[in-house]
Amino acid sequence: MTEVRTTCPYCGVGCGVIAKPAASGGWSVHGDPSHPANLGRLCSKGSALAETLGLEDRLLTPRVGGAPTGWNAALDLVASRFRDAIDQHGPDSVGFYVSGQLLTEDYYVANKLMKGFIGSANIDTNSRLCMSSSVAGHKRAFGTDTVPGQYMDLEEADLVVLVGSNLAWCHPVLYQRIVAAKKARPFMKVVNIDPRRTATCDIADLHLQIAPAGDVALFNGLLAWIAEKGAVDAAYVARHVEGFEVALSAARSEDLSVTGLPPQLLREFFDLWVRTEKTVTVFSQGVNQSSSGTDKVNAILNCHLATGRIGRPGMGPFSVTGQPNAMGGREVGGLANMLACHLDLENSEHRAAVRDFWNAPAIPSVPGLKAVDMFRAAGEGGIKALWIIHTNPAVSMPEADAVCTAIEACEFVVVSDVTAATDTARRADVVLPAMAWGEKDGTVTNSERCISRQRPFATAPDGPRADWRILCDVAGRLGWAAQFDYDGPAEIFREYAALSGIAGRFGRDFDISGLVDLSTAEYDALAPTVWPLTTVRAGGRFFADGGFFTESGRGQMLPLKRRGPAADTTAAFPFRFNTGRVRDHWHTMTRTAKSPRLSQHMGEPYLEIHPEDAAVLGLQPATIAEVTSPLGRALLRVVTTDRVRPGEVFAPMHWTSESASQARIDALVPSEVDPISGQPESKAAAVSVAPFSAAWYGFAVAGGEIRPRTAYWAKARTKTGWRAELADAAVPQDWEQFARDLFDRSDADAVSVIDAHRGVARVALLDSGRVVATLYAAPDPVAVARAHITGRIGESDAGTVLAGRPGADRPDPGATVCACFDVGVNTILSAIRTGGLTSVEEIGAVLQAGTSCGSCRPELAALLANAAAPRAAE
Ligand SMILES: Nc1nc2c(c(=O)[nH]1)N[C@H]1C(S)=C(S)[C@@H](COP(=O)(O)OP(=O)(O)OC[C@H]3O[C@@H](n4cnc5c(=O)[nH]c(N)nc54)[C@H](O)[C@@H]3O)O[C@H]1N2
Ligand SMILES: Nc1nc2c(c(=O)[nH]1)N[C@H]1C(S)=C(S)[C@@H](COP(=O)(O)OP(=O)(O)OC[C@H]3O[C@@H](n4cnc5c(=O)[nH]c(N)nc54)[C@H](O)[C@@H]3O)O[C@H]1N2
Ligand code: SF4
Ligand SMILES: [Mo]
């Protein structure tokens, strides 16, 4: 096999990648220069894809009750348990909880099975936690869920406003495109609206460090300013918009002090917006994941509708999607309140058309249970059989401990995953092995409505099946073999394109009927294609000339009023708990944690807290914080930083029970949802923070497994094995015995340096004279050269390994900053100092750091600006 063009399985930028067999065996993965999303660029996660293809941790056979089972027996069991529940309790007693990472073909089949044949709308997806406020906001304003613009608008804009989006880390290639555009057009301005000072601020001309949930007030203030300054596009409003007056009058009565922003900064932003016609407003989870998320979306859309800045080059609101197929899932109707192809569940003509097309018995007329309600029903017995596909709700749902209990309490839970080592799969009755990226075959749609192929390049191991096939296997056993008899994804795609043509005839925007006659060979070769694609239209923007999909054909402006987060902070829970992502990990880490490079950027779960708050609480940097909400508890490494505002703390969402002792942060987050979208408020729980009283801290490295049982631990992969951070309230009696247990090496020789008086212990375990594991423990957070130690496994001189510090001849690179070239923080700092480097380009010229994917360039800039940038580990 030569090279295969496919699409990155991570974020919604949807970059094209080229996979080639590597000379050393395995695969190499590079950016596809011909893909319109990235033109050859990749971020750190995309560049490390080849390191995540290994079979360790892969699930290869179905498991029933934990025991390996043949496919037929497992599928028979799944079908009979679903059939029993449907027969005894009706179709609404079963549910599917699926994912914006499913391919369109998988998603289409899941939706068809549940809504068309089982006859319930109980299919919801993790996109409920992600995009549903944008979906609801778009539908309220446009009458349809459509992103009006294209990526090139971000480059053509004179002003890019980022709201609740850490684009530098979460959509890195789009961010790099803006960086390049700004360099080429220096008058271009960027404004970042985020309560945190994130890496994205690196390119921001203005940072509005807004109070949590201040966004509706801010955009109401902007709307009032637009009107006051005569910036309303009266012709556009007169012809294409409804609701202007009521929206404006609500906006005028807003209290802007709730934004927490000084009046002159507000004015600077408002003036910039008003005088810059070519403005794009990009928004993401700081907007969507809120109990007023849908209103936040509409507050932004109001400003674009009032100024007619929509659907024209360099202008428009731009909701960026998170998952690779978040957009595709919305197109197929993967949410419990949608039908398919942007058709409406509540519309009887739409239902009849879809029913006839599918040759289905009945289509439900009422929406199904949304994610939070679905898990509640599973816990309370309303859902008797639940199938979870391609998502890890025991970690990612709010009230995650209650979700775990609900999965355990539900009579029958099936999980389809590539691994059984997840908090969700461990609790399931049946786990079915799915094919992974590189093996599976289908399409995804990115943030700009561009449909791209995910093509297989690696041979799938024996056992796993494609998600669509597993669904069809069960559908056949439920009695619908003929309607689910597909010979491959191309056939599913053609059926889907045909259904979209029917939607098009109803006047819906999602119409790809131009692809209905694709042969399988043409499907295989399909180039990236922006929808709509019909006989009369190919791609492009929406709404420059009106043409909204509302009943009146006009865009709707809405009267809005700011609401605060649902959970109030109190004396007992005084901090706002903001949550989100880090640069090099993907969600619950089942794939990115396989890459040692990606695992080194942020090696453990952490809590960002303002130094003033930390001082009041007596929290020292790098100690462990105990974070508590009325629902749960987490132990996180303390990072004191003024990147967060006083009174607010931030933690990443990625750590699970597989990777840390107690860092599933969604255990702390209440299930408060937006009343319109049902999207949970993932970024504004009320918590308390206290020091965890650790008697000792430790750092451990091993060539093999590490099995910590300490109160605090967090594990990460290294090139040779594992590393772990540890802390506990009780000091072990015998450090050598402790180390043997920790590393599961009862027979290994130990060399130790123990200073009982100072409480310092260093133990190396040896096998045939070579160091196989080392442990460093101290009463304070251990200050050893972690990257150095990690590279010493396999050496014979235990004494120098135990020193924990490199000799002068062997500098310690420090924690990884540039994942592409594996360049550590100390290497960069020393090059800055010794080489007198003053720019990111100079660092690149000397060390290569920042010259490949560019994801670390904001951090390089920060290191230049401040040699002592705070980090989680090191
Ligand atoms: N590296 C990486 N990239 C990813 C992912 C990943 O797991 N890792 N996941 C992908 C997915 S599925 C998604 S949805 C996207 C998410 O992409 P983003 O939305 O950019 O990511 P988050 O870090 O969740 O949140 C963005 C910011 O919202 C801010 N915020 C919190 N509350 C408020 C508020 O009230 N108002 C405003 N204005 N801002 C607020 C937070 O401080 C945070 O910096 O990322 C995608 N890309
Ligand atoms: N507090 C807080 N919580 C959040 C968020 C937040 O910002 N803050 N963000 C929310 C958002 S936006 C999102 S999108 C969710 C994401 O949360 P999840 O969807 O729960 O996270 P993932 O780790 O992406 O889960 C994907 C699962 O699918 C498995 N998998 C991988 N490939 C395949 C495949 O081909 N087939 C199958 N069947 N399985 C596969 C993986 O091993 C993994 O177990 O988290 C949400 N939760
Ligand atoms: S920006 Fe990175 S994670 Fe997102 S699609 Fe591109 S390479 Fe993948
Ligand atoms: Mo997401």
UniProtKB/TrEMBL annotation:
Cross-referenced SUPFAM superfamilies, in alphabetical order? Answer: ADC-like (SSF50692), Formate dehydrogenase/DMSO reductase, domains 1-3 (SSF53706)
**Keywords on record:** 4Fe-4S, Iron, Iron-sulfur, Metal-binding, Molybdenum, Nitrate assimilation, Oxidoreductase
**InterPro entries, sorted:** Asp_de-COase-like_dom_sf, BFD-like_2Fe2S-bd_dom, BFD-like_2Fe2S-bd_dom_sf, CT_Nitrate-R-NapA-like, MoPterin_dinucl-bd_dom, Mopterin_OxRdtase, Mopterin_OxRdtase_4Fe-4S_dom, Prok_molybdopt-oxidoreductase
**Could you tell me which residue ranges the 4Fe-4S Mo/W bis-MGD-type domain spans?**
1-57
* CDD domains cross-referenced by the UniProt entry: MopB_CT_Nitrate-R-NapA-like (cd02791), MopB_Nitrate-R-NapA-like (cd02754)
Q: Where are the transmembrane segments?
A: none
Cofactor(s) this protein cannot do without? [4Fe-4S] cluster; Mo-bis(molybdopterin guanine dinucleotide)
GO molecular-function term, one example from the UniProt record: molybdopterin cofactor binding
Q: Pfam families given for it?
A: Fer2_BFD, Molybdop_Fe4S4, Molybdopterin, Molydop_binding
The biological process GO terms on file are: cellular respiration; nitrate assimilation
- Gene Ontology terms, cellular component aspect? membrane; oxidoreductase complex
Keyword Transcription regulation in annotation: no
Domain of life of the organism encoding this protein: Bacteria
The similarity comment for this entry is: Belongs to the prokaryotic molybdopterin-containing oxidoreductase family. NasA/NapA/NarB subfamily.
Question: By what name is this protein known?
Answer: Assimilatory nitrate reductase (NADH) alpha subunit apoprotein
Organism of origin is Tropicimonas isoalkanivorans
Q: What is the lineage of its organism?
A: Bacteria, Pseudomonadati, Pseudomonadota, Alphaproteobacteria, Rhodobacterales
